Structure formats: structure tokens, C-alpha cells
């Protein structure tokens, strides 16, 4: 530890059913574990085991992963490695002048498409955006009376090259393959002020706030949970132990919460046994290098962890007059980034069920001082299935939970 290797990130593909091993060896920074776990989740992978260690300056992380249920085994490993390397701090930060360490403002763009509507169109557009490394921050979609689908995405480019005509042409060419060359339109422009800042949140109406209460009430936990904190085992660290049902995104939800609380991990281990039970042991410090001894802060941390582990995603389906509305909500951290693959996975389930979307929107909202990423969909009537049936709605909600949480 402490010496840069030739490969900051290495990936050893698993054979004969064994998980793939991802190793990260780079300078440490607060929240690095959350950033890595987020990227791994972005590619539809489940972390079945992890080892993390750092001396405060350099860290070494090992992740054993495999594709989640329903995810193609043809993982784009080269793209995954590139993003992981990008998330790591530079190996020689002392060579960077201070003015170059200030992050540049992120340019947001508005993508508008027009085409004939069909089942699964929104999912196919989202898949293209993900493959080309675009990040969707806000979205509005609707279907006109003459059957045309209009979509607008406020997005940013991970490659930071969407201002170039070549990159715009590449995006539109890929999209027109699914939209239809003759009857579609694709336009990319800088996002106007009406879309707001990317890190800015708007307020939901009182009616929508009530819907969030319904989401919380209807949300189902993902099994039993035990969180223990011990300050007696180590003179310099606090031991945090989490025992719960293993699932997709569990490591990300835990790491993101710790990052929000400015907590650094000195050493950690995570494993999922054959019964699917997950255990996470972390020796942690506050960002100032001290143990966590304040009982109020510890209670707040454990309460937030409980919410993020048991209810990382909240789902509600209800009647909206003659229409059926689906709401999917997930909390977002201080970093302001939404849950990875959420829009893709939601629309993938709706596509598989043959449900047509009449109207949809997505964005970040502020409710009682907490940030949420909220997706809302209005369904078209489905002649072969009664979408107003409580049993049908419960089945849709369960399929969404399985897809989002694995």
C-alpha cells in the first residue's frame, strides 16, 4: 500500500460460475467507496463480497461481483474499467496546480425526440443514452392525439463532448435506428434556464407530497435489519456492523449514506452467504479523523441507514381519475446524483408487461428538507388487463421492486 501500480483498476473475469474480481488501487478520498459502488451498480452488477482498506492516503479495494437477475452477461467490462479509473483521484496530485483542481461547471443539454409511439420506446431511448454514457437528470415524455411520442431529456455528457457536432450526430444516428429514420426527429441544444440548475431542486405540490406519504406507507422492507455500533474494540475507530438481507445496490446505499455524513472507512468487509444474508463490518472515522462518539450523531446515522437499507426505493400505483399513475421515488444523496439505472429498469419492466406510457416525467424534488428522485408515469388503457385492479397493481409493484433491487 502506498505505491501506485501500473493498473489502477484490474478486472479478473470469473469462470465456471465464480464471481468476477474487481480491484482498485489508488489514492484515497472521502466517499471513494460510494463512487465505486455506484459505478458497479450502474452496470447491473451485484457485489457479493468486498474488502476495503486504507492508510488514510492510499486505498486498496476488492469487489467480487456478478450480474443481477435479468441482466445480460455481456457486461461492457472495458467501459466499466474506464469509469472506475476516472472515479479515482490522480496518482500524483502534487503535480496538479491548485487552479486545475477546481471542478468546472457541468454543461447540461436538452435532447428532444419526436417519433411514432410504440411499446417500450422510452426504455429503448434510455438504453441508448446509457450506452453512450449520458446521464439523465430530468425527463418529460408524452403521446399526442395522433399517436406521436414526444420526449425531452435534460442530460449531461460523461465524455464532456456533446458540444461537438460529431458527438451530437452520433447520438441522433443511434436514436433514429429505434425511432425510425423517415418519421422521427432528434435535436440537441444547450438546456435553457427553464430546466433549472442540475443541483437545484423544485418543490412538489401538496398533492404530490401526499403521494410521497403513500409511497412510504405502501413501501415494503427488504427483510430484517440489525445495526450495531461499538467504540470499545478499537482505540482509534468506531466499528459499524450491519446485518440484513443481501440485495442489489446494498453496498451503494450504505456507502452513499456514510459519504453524506462525511464518514471515512479505514477498513471494511462485506459478504453475502448462501442464504442471501448480507453482513457488513466497517471501521469508520469522521471526516476530521476522530471516532464517532456523539450519541445524537450516531442515532441520526443509524436511523438514516435503516431507511436507506429497508426502503431504498418507494413505489405506489393508484387511480388518477380515469388514469392509472405509477410513482417510483428514491432518495438522493448530497452529491445530487440519482439512483443508477432507475429509469432504464422501470421502463424495462413496463415494456416487458406490454404497458404503454401516455405521459411521464422525472426529476429531483425537495420534500421536508430531503431530496428525492421521483418518476411518474400515466398508463394507457390495456384492453387485456385491468390496470385498475389492486391485484394487478400489486403485481406490477412487486416486479418493479425485484428489478430495481434484485
TrEMBL record:
Domain ACT: 110-195
Keywords, comma-separated and alphabetical: Repeat
InterPro entries per record: ACR1-12 (IPR040217), ACR2/9/10_N (IPR056816), ACT-like_dom_sf (IPR045865), ACT_ACR9/10_C (IPR056805), ACT_dom (IPR002912)
Pfam families documented for this protein: ACR10_N, ACT_ACR9_3rd, ACT_ACR9_C
Top-level taxon of origin: Eukaryota
Protein name according to UniProt: ACT domain-containing protein
Species name: Ceratopteris richardii
Lineage: Eukaryota, Viridiplantae, Streptophyta, Embryophyta, Tracheophyta
Amino acid at each position: 500500500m502506498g505505491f501506485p501500480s501500473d493498473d489502477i483498476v484490474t478486472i479478473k473475469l470469473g469462470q465456471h460460475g465464480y464471481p468476477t474480481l474487481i480491484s482498485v488501487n489508488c489514492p484515497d478520498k472521502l466517499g471513494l467507496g460510494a463512487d465505486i459502488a455506484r459505478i458497479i451498480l450502474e452496470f447491473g452488477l451485484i457485489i457479493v463480497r468486498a474488502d476495503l482498506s486504507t492508510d488514510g492516503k492510499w486505498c486498496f479495494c476488492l469487489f467480487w461481483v456478478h450480474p443481477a437477475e435479468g441482466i445480460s452477461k455481456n457486461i461492457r467490462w472495458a467501459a466499466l474499467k474506464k469509469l472506475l479509473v476516472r472515479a479515482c483521484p490522480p496518482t500524483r496530485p502534487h503535480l496538479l496546480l491548485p487552479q486545475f483542481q477546481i471542478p468546472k461547471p457541468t454543461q447540461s443539454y436538452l435532447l428532444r425526440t419526436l417519433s411514432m409511439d410504440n411499446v417500450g420506446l422510452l426504455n429503448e431511448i434510455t438504453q441508448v443514452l446509457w450506452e453512450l454514457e449520458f446521464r439523465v437528470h430530468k425527463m418529460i415524455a408524452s403521446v399526442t392525439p395522433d399517436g406521436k411520442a414526444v420526449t425531452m431529456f435534460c442530460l449531461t455528457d460523461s465524455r464532456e463532448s456533446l458540444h461537438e457536432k460529431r458527438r451530437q450526430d452520433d447520438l441522433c444516428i443511434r436514436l433514429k435506428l429505434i425511432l425510425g429514420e423517415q418519421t422521427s426527429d432528434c435535436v440537441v441544444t444547450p438546456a435553457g434556464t427553464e430546466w433549472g440548475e442540475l443541483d437545484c431542486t423544485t418543490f412538489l405540490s401538496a398533492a404530490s407530497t401526499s403521494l410521497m406519504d403513500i409511497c412510504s406507507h405502501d413501501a415494503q422492507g427488504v427483510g430484517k435489519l440489525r445495526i450495531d455500533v461499538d467504540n470499545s474494540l478499537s482505540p482509534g475507530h468506531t466499528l459499524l456492523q450491519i446485518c440484513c438481507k443481501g440485495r442489489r445496490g446494498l453496498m451503494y446505499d450504505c456507502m452513499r449514506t456514510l459519504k453524506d455524513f462525511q464518514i471515512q472507512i479505514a477498513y471494511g468487509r462485506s459478504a453475502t452467504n448462501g442464504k442471501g444474508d448480507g453482513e457488513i463490518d466497517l471501521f469508520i472515522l469522521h471526516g476530521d479523523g476522530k471516532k464517532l462518539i456523539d450519541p445524537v450523531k450516531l442515532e441520526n446515522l443509524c436511523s438514516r441507514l435503516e431507511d436507506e437499507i429497508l426502503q431504498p426505493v418507494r413505489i405506489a400505483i393508484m387511480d388518477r381519475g380515469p388514469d392509472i399513475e405509477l410513482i417510483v421515488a428514491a432518495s438522493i444523496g448530497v452529491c445530487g446524483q440519482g439512483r443508477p439505472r432507475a429509469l432504464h429498469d422501470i421502463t424495462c419492466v413496463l415494456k416487458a408487461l406490454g404497458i404503454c406510457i401516455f405521459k411521464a416525467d422525472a426529476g429531483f424534488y425537495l420534500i421536508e428538507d430531503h431530496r428525492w428522485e421521483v418518476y411518474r408515469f400515466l398508463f394507457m388503457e390495456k384492453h387485456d388487463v385491468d390496470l385498475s385492479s389492486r391485484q394487478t397493481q400489486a403485481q406490477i409493484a412487486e416486479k418493479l421492486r425485484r428489478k430495481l433491487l434484485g
